[in-house]
Amino acid sequence: MFSKKQRIDREKIGKIMKNPDFSFKSGNLALKASKNNLPFPRFSVVISKKTEKNAVKRHFLKRKLISLIKSVENINNLDFVFFINNRNFYKNKEEIDNLISKCII
Fold first, then answer.
1. Is 80 exposed, middle or buried (0-12, 13-18, 19+ CB in 10 A)?
2. Cα separation of 27 and 5, whole Å?
3. Which of 29-43, 64-78, 79-93 has the highest mean pLDDT?
4. For the whole model, what pTM was predicted?
5. Parallel/antiparallel/unpaired status of strands 78-84 and 42-46
6. What is the distance between the alpha carbons of residues 105 and 101, in angstroms, rounded to a whole number?
């Protein structure tokens, strides 16, 4: 889990979704980002019920992505909203690492 200061609230997520400064999509993962005036990046992970019906599995996917994000260093000071579009997203860890590195750095 991210610390409270690194999380984005619902209101800000809505603003980022409507008007992102940066948007990237690749297969199972989509990213929208917006500039922030803070000295650190903030994150949010969104997984809809259409992607995975079971809440336990949605939370598992979310934790998996969060751990991969935390492993990436030198992240720009932006607000990042990640969208997982497929439940098979977590099967190939190397692919996920490469995709997140391309998105964030």
1. buried
2. 30
3. 29-43
4. 0.80
5. parallel
6. 6
Residue 2 — φ and ψ, nearest 5°?
-80, 155
For residues 5 and 2, give the distance between their C-alpha atoms in angstroms, rounded to a whole number.
8
Burial class (CB in 10 A: 0-12, 13-18, 19+), 39: exposed
**100 Cβ contact partners less than 8 Å away, ≥ 6 residues apart:** 29, 68, 69, 72
Instruction: Retrieve residue 99's tokens.
Output: 């995709």
Asked if residue 56 has pLDDT above 90, the reply is: yes
Domains and CATH numbers, the chain: 4-104 (3.30.230.10)
